[in-house]
Amino acid sequence: MVNIREIVTRFAPSPSGPMHVGHLLAAMHARRLADVSGGRCMLRIEDIDQRSCSPHWVKLMYEDLAWLGLHFDGEVMVQSRRYPIYEATLNQLRKLGVLYPCFCTRGEIKAQIAEMGRAPHASLGFLYPGTCRHLSPEQIEEKMAAGVPHAWRINMQRVQDMIGCPSWEDLRRGVQRCVPTLYGDVVLARKDMPTSYHLSVVVDDAAQEISLVSRGEDLFDATHIHRALQGVLGLPVPRYYHHTLLRDNAGKRLAKRDGARSLASLRESGYTPTMIRESLLEALSNGGIWRI
Ligand code: GLU
Question: Rounded distance, CA 167 to CA 289, Å?
Answer without folding.
Answer: 32
